[in-house]
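User: Hey, my collaborator sent me this sequence without any context and asked if I could get a structure. I don't really work with proteins. Can you help?
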Amino acid sequence: MTTWVVDASVVVKWALPVQDGDTHQEQALALLKDIQMGNCQVLQPPHWLAEVGAVLTRLAPKQSIRMLQNFLAMEFHMTTEWEVYEQACRLSVDLNHHLFDTLYHAVALQSSNTLFVTADTQYFRKAAKLG
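Assistant: No problem. I've predicted the 3D structure and written it out in structure-token form, which is a compact way to encode the shape of the chain:
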């Protein structure tokens, strides 16, 4: 079974209506469907819900609490292993990028048979060569 690390840029697409010109919405919703059907697992860094909540309360304040409750009910597995933080710090320095984004990537790099998905094109361009 495939395990995914899903960064906040993708999770937010699950909750908010399609934005004009959004080329990643369909893929994000297809992944959500696979997760809901039990076709794959999700492994997240511990800050994922707070980061998603920050975006949702800004973009959809009236619905944000309900949306967060729905995401929490999905009961994603989380990791707090030191090696994840260590690698995330290194990635943050090496790529000159925010630690919150590199934490998702580090979870995938530290976990075997785990894939990282992001809709953050800036981070993707910087980090694609790393896997």
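In plain terms: The beta strands are 2-6, 40-44, 77-78, 114-117. You can pass these tokens on to your collaborator as they are.
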